[in-house]
Amino acid sequence: MFSVAEGMNRPAYSRLPVSVDLSLLLQALTAIVDDAWRSHFNAGYFTGDWSGVALISASDALTELSPGRGEPLHRAPWRLDERWQTGLRDLPLEIVSARLLRLAPGAQIHEHRDYDLDGPDADLRLHIPLLSPPEVDFWLDGEKIPMQAGECWFLDLARPHRVDNRDTSLRVHLVLDCRPGEWLERMIADGLPSTPQAQRIETALQRFQRAVATDPALSAILQALPDPEQFISRTLEMAAERGMTFSREELRAAMRNGRRQWNEQWSG
């Protein structure tokens, strides 16, 4: 019998040693009509086109793409096209949510954390890339995750993560939220030895943060700016002067995460 304690030391990511029928799933994806795609509900967390189609979602969700705690409902694309279920036939999962998430060329998902996935009894999120062009960067906790089409990855997205589609093609993932269970926990563990090594690359924002931490004069200039918009503009300007370029949205995301981490240290 699976116990909650078994899941308390999960890794940040693992490529599961399982197979999906990618050809069949791509056929089902092709059958999704254009007007079925809906913009992601976290409007402040992305730029460009980030949209989705719900296959399974909670009965009490505000929108079909939103999270909820109610009974999982099989939405029309899942009910009417058996290829989705057939393509996942070798995965004995208790799926509470299944979504197709599409990121258009040039779009970015800003760094954030999915706090509903935190905790030993939280749902476990699996990503199955269906369309995975080479110039898409998926960053998890500062590491670039090398996902390929047809693979199945567990990702601990309660950790900071972001996505940047620098390619000219769409990125589409089938995203499954599943209840913890003995089989899934075993696959996460069994997949670790063969999981490709992620790349840890320091971003321009991280380099600038390090520069601020080691330069009292630079730190003093920024600390003297109480207005958030002035702080953001001056930070971008000073970083650019030092050859470090990052977006206003990246900086806002880092500021949000910093505030939340500051608050969390007093909430235990």
**Count of folded domains:** 2
Task: Based on the coordinates given, report the CATH architecture of the largest domain.
Answer: Sandwich
Compute the separation of the termini in Å: 30 Å
Instruction: Tell me the strand percentage band.
Output: 15-25%
Q: Which structural class best describes the helix and strand composition?
A: alpha+beta
Counted beta strands: 14
Q: Would you identify the regions where 5 or more consecutive residues have pLDDT less than 50?
A: 1-7
Form type: globular
What is the mean predicted local confidence, pLDDT? 89
Question: What Rg, in angstroms, do the CA atoms define?
Answer: 20 Å
CATH superfamily of the largest domain: B-lactam Antibiotic, Isopenicillin N Synthase, Chain
Order of helices and strands: EHEEEEHHEEEEEEEEHEHHHH
**Count of helical segments?**
8
- In which range does the helix fraction lie? 25-40%
CATH class of the largest domain: Mainly Beta
CATH fold type of the largest domain: Jelly Rolls
The biggest beta sheet reads: 8 strands, antiparallel
